[in-house]
């Protein structure tokens, strides 16, 4: 299994753990993030997430879920840009969770950001917004199950914002979400990626 595949399917990746730090600017804030081997997008902000940030504005205050958080780039960008935001970040990769919480502590936002495994999230917790660069390569059925697990956690008036590659099925996913009762609008299209927004019907 390659390093890229390992981060998707392993709770505890087998590749040797090497940290790698990088900086990026999101919504006018410079973030210094530590990534690592066995975690998606080591040493740089991946193209899809960069497009998500570039094509959106920082959200308003509220409760947020970073779905499939990796080392925390999306949730931590929200924490940096939205002082009153409270963020829960979930991933199945224990190494990603460790890095995300370490990054939150280094940024001084650990009181408003927590990364954990999905099953550790209280069942009654709801969110104003869900943000995600979802793990498309887990397969269509698993992705559908993932989205239908978390979309009902949106508070009234809430929304899901995510970025999906056109070549990875963004347009069919948009149609499918609408069929499931989550009308989905394309907010932007750039460099082969779609930024989608879903709201309850």
Percent helix range:
25-40%
Strand order of the largest sheet: 5-4-3-6-7-9-8
Distance between the termini: 40 Å
- Specify the overall morphology: globular
Number of distinct helices: 6
Order of helices and strands: HEEHEHEHEEHEHEE
Quick one: how many beta strands? 9
Mean pLDDT: 89
Largest sheet: 7 strands, mixed
**Secondary-structure-derived class:** alpha/beta
β-strand percent reads: 25-35%
Give the uncertain stretches in residue-range form.
1-8
Radius of gyration: 16 Å
Protein model, in words:
- The protein is of the alpha/beta class.
- 29% of the residues lie in helices and 30% in strands.
- The chain has helices at 3-9, 47-54, 73-81, 94-107, 140-150, 170-179; strands at 19-26, 29-36, 63-67, 86-90, 113-116, 127-132, 154-165, 184-190, 193-198.
- It has a seven-stranded mixed beta sheet with strand order 5-4-3-6-7-9-8, sandwiched between helices. The protein has a two-stranded antiparallel sheet with strand order 1-2.
- α4 links the parallel β4 and β5.
- Mean pLDDT is 89; it is low at 1-8.
């Amino acid at each position: 299994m390659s390093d890229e595949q390992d981060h998707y399917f392993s709770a505890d990746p087998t590749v040797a753990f090497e940290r790698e730090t990088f900086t990026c600017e999101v919504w006018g804030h410079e973030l210094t993030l530590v990534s690592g081997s066995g975690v998606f997008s080591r040493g740089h902000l991946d193209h899809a997430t960069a497009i998500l940030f570039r094509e959106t504005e920082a959200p308003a205050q509220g409760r947020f879920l970073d779905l499939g958080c990796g080392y925390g780039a999306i949730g931590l960008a929200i924490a940096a840009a939205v002082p009153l935001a409270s963020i829960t970040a979930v991933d199945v990769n224990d190494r990603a969770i460790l890095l995300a919480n370490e990054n939150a502590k280094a940024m001084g936002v650990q009181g408003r950001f927590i990364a954990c495994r999905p099953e550790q999230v209280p069942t009654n917790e709801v969110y104003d917004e869900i943000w995600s660069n979802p793990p498309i390569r887990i397969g269509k059925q698993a992705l559908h199950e993932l989205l239908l697990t978390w979309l009902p956690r949106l508070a009234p008036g809430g929304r899901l914002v995510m970025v999906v590659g056109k070549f990875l099925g963004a347009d069919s996913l948009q149609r499918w979400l609408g069929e499931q009762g989550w009308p989905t609008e394309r907010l932007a299209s750039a460099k082969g990626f779609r930024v989608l927004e879903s709201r309850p019907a």
